[in-house]
Amino acid sequence: MCQALREIMKPELEQSRQEGLEEGIKEGICVTVRILRGLGQAEESIKESIMGNYMLSQDAAEKYMMTQ
What we know:
By secondary structure, the chain is an all-alpha fold. It has three helices and no strands.
């Protein structure tokens, strides 16, 4: 890709990269919840784990847990 085209496409590429990163993190949180449940971890322990490891608020952690 030539330099001029890279500069023109930079905002769109950065937005796509950011969206992909956010989707990957969401999927990682969901998988973490499923794994910890499968290992028999208590719900409160799971919530604390994802809050700490993914820097989530209590509300956000609870939303992830309700979707799994």
